[in-house]
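Throughout our pipeline, every protein is held as a single compact record rather than as scattered files. This encoding replaces a full spatial description with a residue-level series of whole-number codes. The remainder of this section carries one protein's record, kept here as part of the documentation.
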Amino acid sequence: MEKVAGLTLETDKEAEQKVRALTDKFLQGIHQYKLVEYKEARLRVDFLDPFLRAFGWDLTNEQGLSEASREVVTEASLKIKGHIKAPDYAMKIGRKRVFYLEAKKPSVDIENSASPAYQVRRYGYTAKLSLCLLSDFEEWAVYDTRTKPDEQETSKHGRVFFCKVDELFAACRVKGFERNIDYLYHYFAKEPVFAGSHSEYSRSNKLKKGQLMVDQDFLGTIELWRDELARALANANTYQNDYMLTDDVQLLIDRILFLRICEDRGSESVGALLDIAGAEAVYAQLVQHFQRAGGKYNSEIFDRNEALEALELPNATLKKMITGLYKNNPYAFDAMPVEILGQVYEQFLGKTIRLTASGRAKVEEKPEVRKAGGVYYTPQYIVEYIVENTLGVWLKGRRMETVRAFRVVDPACGSGAFLLAAYEFLLGWYLKRYTAREAVERSLKQGRVYRLAKGQYRLSLDAKKDVLLWHIYGVDIDYQAVEVTKLSLMLKLLEDEDQEDPDALFVASDGKALPNFGKNIQCGNSLVGNDYVGQDLFDLKEQRKINAFDWERSFSEVFEQGGFDCVIGNPPYVRQELLGDEIKAYLQRNYAVFQGTADLYIYFFEKALRLVKAGGSMSFIVANKWMRARYGENLRRFLCENRLVEIIDFGDLPVFHGATTYPCIIKMERDKPKGVFQAANVDTLAFDSLGKHLSGNRFDCEVSSLENEAWRLTDKKTSDLLNKIKGVGIPLERYINKEIYRGILTGLNEAFVIDTETKNRLIAEDKSSEELIKPFLVGKDIKRYAPLENKGQYLIFTKRGLDINKYPAIKRYLEQYKSQLMPKPKGYKGDNWKGRKPGPYQWYEIQDSVNYYKEFEKTKIIYPNICHRPEFTFDTEHYYTNQKCFIIPGEDKYLLGILNSSVFFFLFRSLLPKLRGNFYEPGYVYLKTFPIPQPDLTNTEDKAGYDQLVQLVESRLQLEAQAQSAASKRDVQALAGMVASCEVRINALVYGLYGLNAGEIAEVEG
């Protein structure tokens, strides 16, 4: 069992005493409790409620938290409208559910009965929870609910713990726990749950290969629907273009899914869709069902669509799709968070339907998704932090009457994750104000809230509709994404409505449940306005692709008030080569941050500050490359000219699962610039709340400390130290006269990099081959101060202008790769080209021009372009290297000592891009500015220090060579001590060269 800081495997003593008392009480009266007459509701009051209180849970919300944030949600004991009721207890951290406890009366055989196990597993699985608890107090069963449940499985499937009440204090069979009570306390008591025990369980107990979490599994389900619907519709109907087919398929999926979710939630008759699936004409019956729903819900999703209603669709396709949502259906839709549905749709929208020349349907990835390597949704903790740090800050201390005009927008809303979180946040804010002691009676009379139980209230449907229409706005260029956002918001609006009086559900001002979102959530290109003029103004295909959007006309009521109050979101990471020349020209004309190689997201910064009113704020999560990349120069300048509020850099942490994106959160306000902003460098994701984690890790960062070439977030102490170090000597590029060279990019290593056997054969065939074959190293071969070793790799170095006919053996050898070695034609944009990049070189030549190749044949300093720390060494054997290395010509041992010093490691940590796995990338563009103390060798003191450092570096090189050939452990240990001593002395001299005091040295070594 992996232990996590802050977690304990022992039960709290006070909790243990209370549970012992409950256990004794139950065992004394066990016979009466096991009678059929002893109901579940009684058990909850007598035993399970006190048990949970003993484990620290606030069942009655004595803390006075908002309804959305209360720790425990309890369900009614009776079935609701014929549905299987939800689990009896839902335990939460803030708004996030962490586990369910399902209660049964003691007469139920929990150990062997499959039905209760399936019920709790199904709910836990759908809610994407790690562990859930099933108990009648006599028996305690814990299930791993990450795995997909099946009605045919026994009660043992997925069960990871079981004990009876008289075994609670007996020895535990789970490794790492002394007693059963300790296991239950660790995973189901408030304190360890809040400390992350469920996250620890998931990390320690990986799913088996092939097992899918609910979002991955459900994604597979709706992707299968899309495939089958697209093929069936294309086969039975005639479509003019891809868009029409894509829209029809999406709308059918959205409608069916919405109605099926409403069945589980209680606002639709149970099994209504299943009954339709058994009809003689399924699609005709389904169309009638849609029309009825349109009258009931008043939603755009059910707007009359004569073309859609006239389609032909086989019974078998619909029947298979619908029945799969009932029979052995693993999804409890009333437990599926809308956020998970949004995450699924985010992935789903990464593909589109294309009609082939023969009129058949084919599903394929969108080009921008293929280029990006997939779709990556924003983690919920990031979404919630951005919402709380923008909306929460704006709303703080505001009176109700001043909030009515508040507007928030996501200009690239995707499937609606940020808008959902913003909506939920606002619902909580309104509920808290409506139910304040002085306001609750008035709110009840006005129908803004209704009473659920003593001390528990919920917003009425009318109130929730108002919050949505007053405050929530979104735009996306993808029509399908806009429709999904609307669907998600509809489902969020109807969430928990089965708890209200069913007869009152649709008693609203217009007698219908849902508002029309058309004015709030719109489709368009947030960055391109109606002033865009393409090649052909009347080319429908081009205009559809550009999808220009007029913000002020589309949201006139917002801009009459000066604009939006908050802009939030995760702008798209679309690479510039996908934009097209005309779009790039438009962006250049209209955006100060323009740079021809920039990703699309940088333009959203400038757009966001245009959209917000004076004093408004924006907050995005984006890739952090703009802080250091050349294409970010204009953006960095733009940000300094406006008010920076906060930057949170996640470095190389895997924030987006499965993607290497290096993200950061940035917040700005439309106001005059300030000299200081808040910053944080996050170095772990082991937290349950980003806000709490940051509360002790933020620091003030001075705008003046940010350099034009690249930004690195540092506090004043570190910034002052960096400035002191940079003030010493001269930049590295001046010290070495700009002589840093990159290793060789061959264009096809398979052809040009050979082994010893091939080398010897080519020379045997033709002696002249030896002129072109060079000893070869790659980045991983280079270690700090270590002598270089030939790994049996060689480079066929066919430089530009070479007469290949003088080397017949090498020509014959390379000809086997000729098709792959052919340069790509200039301007070629196809995807299937197997040759190399375009360039003015012959097929047999190295792709790089490498006009500095003679430098490889001299003594030089050499280092890898990716490393954990400075890894500089000498090359006296004249190796050639791949592009993963850099070389500095010359034999400067003084420079080598500085490059490998602790001061340089401090500069690495402070100024270089950090990559996944704590690696750094000391490319020339960064390294060239690092300061080198320049000694005056005519000065006696400087010359003595210089000579001493050179002598120590020579000793260090010798020690490393000895360590490489050490024959015994004793020698290895002795040499390690000598190496450490030598390093200390080198660092001491370098500290002196930079004039560092004891405190500054401690900071460098920290």
